[in-house]
């Protein structure tokens, strides 16, 4: 009986924001809308085994990460369970074993919260479906995104692909602060199969956790302007995605990346999350773009690594440039070739 015990496995990708989420209200409500490319290669695979237990007031679970017991992940998951409990009241009726692994190396500086929390949310939804087989696929995906958001905001953009919007925007009907939705408008062929090569500049632990980072936007002198700007950038991006205007696309996403870092540099306390090699890579990309006329660009998340973005039809020359000139700036020459993907899969 699958309501007594069983196991579900999901593989869920990371995502990279083009318009950044930075700043939130209570209950993981974003201050501005964001949009991301779902990735393909950077994924977390999670198996959630469950067995009925005496109902009690405690959550009961073990975490096994890449084959080893990992008690240090428990507080984060405990917090996640506490936040979602009202929406999935069966959590305290089961004992869980959460076995999880990433396709990208641990402590590569790639945040596993988006892929990890979305994979776990999907496994929990599979139990809900076992208990209530009538639920539809769209309800399943929307609620998985809703639950993932409560684990880590950006995780709500990892359930589906290939372009996902999270946060209410006046021109995007159906957009919501509560869950990610598929980008509903026309997307030019230039953006199909877009590449993202992730250059691992600094594999250390994050200097600033995203929780701390989002909180720095409270009482930040430029916060309100930033939230207005993100909304405007979304309006511009809708047009750019339709027309395929790659030059404006590049200007928009590079500005978004630098603004994210500018917010951290101008908060109190302030942080510089780029490393010298981050700047060397950015300057090399700009010089190469000018000289080659290719549409290679970059974005950043809240760290020193660089995501190098380029369209499919220019991939060969861009990869050659990355290998010849940029990989030298990576820690131990380490980089990951990724591209736009289509969302999580049940295994
Ligand atoms: O999901 P969080 O709380 O880890 O925040 C992620 C924020 C950024 O990655 C910097 C931007 C984004 O929109 O993904």
Automatic annotation (TrEMBL):
Gene Ontology MF terms in the entry: diphosphomevalonate decarboxylase activity
Domain Mvd1 C-terminal: 198-326
InterPro entries: GHMP_kinase_C_sf, Mev_decarb, Mev_diP_decarb, MVD-like_N, Mvd1_C, Ribosomal_Su5_D2-typ_SF, Ribsml_uS5_D2-typ_fold_subgr
Enzyme's top EC category: lyase
Record keywords, A-Z: ATP-binding, Lipid biosynthesis, Lipid metabolism, Lyase, Nucleotide-binding
Protein's UniProt keywords contain Lipid biosynthesis: yes
Residues of the Diphosphomevalonate decarboxylase-like N-terminal domain: 13-171
Domain of life assignment: Bacteria
Entry EC no(s): 4.1.1.33
Tagged with keyword RNA-binding: no
PANTHER family: DIPHOSPHOMEVALONATE DECARBOXYLASE (PTHR10977:SF3)
Family assignment from sequence similarity: Belongs to the diphosphomevalonate decarboxylase family.
Protein name per its UniProtKB record: diphosphomevalonate decarboxylase
Source organism of the structure: Lacinutrix iliipiscaria
């Amino acid at each position: 009986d699958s309501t007594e015990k069983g196991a579900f496995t999901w593989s869920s990708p990371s995502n990279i924001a083009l318009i950044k989420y930075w700043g939130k209200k209570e209950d993981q409500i974003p201050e501005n809308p964001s949009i991301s490319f779902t990735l393909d290669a950077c994924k977390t695979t999670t198996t959630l085994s469950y067995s009925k237990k005496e109902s009690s007031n405690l959550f009961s679970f073990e975490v096994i990460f890449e084959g080893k017991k990992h008690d240090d992940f428990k507080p984060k998951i405990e917090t996640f369970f506490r936040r979602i409990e009202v929406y999935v009241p069966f959590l305290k009726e089961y004992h869980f074993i959460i076995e999880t692994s990433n396709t990208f190396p641990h402590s590569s500086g790639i945040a596993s919260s988006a892929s990890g929390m979305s994979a776990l949310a999907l496994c929990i939804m599979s139990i809900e479906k076992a208990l209530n087989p009538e639920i539809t696929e769209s309800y399943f995906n929307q609620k998985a995104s809703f639950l993932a958001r409560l684990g880590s905001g950006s995780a709500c953009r990892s359930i589906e692909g290939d372009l996902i919007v999270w946060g209410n925007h006046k021109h995007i009907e159906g957009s919501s602060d509560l869950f990610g939705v598929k980008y509903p408008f026309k997307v030019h062929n230039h953006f199909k199969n877009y590449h993202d090569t992730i250059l691992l500049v600094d594999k250390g632990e994050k200097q600033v956790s995203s929780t701390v980072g989002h909180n720095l936007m409270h009482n930040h002198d430029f916060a309100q302007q930033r939230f207005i700007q993100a909304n405007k950038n979304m309006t511009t991006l809708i047009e750019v995605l339709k027309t395929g205007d790659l030059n404006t696309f590049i200007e928009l996403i590079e500005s978004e990346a630098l603004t994210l870092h500018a917010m951290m540099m101008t908060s109190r306390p302030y942080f510089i999350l780029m490393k010298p090699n981050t700047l060397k890579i950015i300057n090399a990309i700009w010089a190469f773009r000018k000289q080659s006329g290719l549409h290679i660009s970059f974005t950043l998340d809240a760290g020193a690594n660089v995501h190098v973005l380029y369209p499919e039809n220019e991939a060969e020359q861009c990869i050659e440039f990355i290998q010849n000139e940029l990989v030298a700036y990576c820690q131990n020459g380490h980089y990951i070739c990724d591209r736009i993907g289509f969302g999580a899969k049940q295994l």
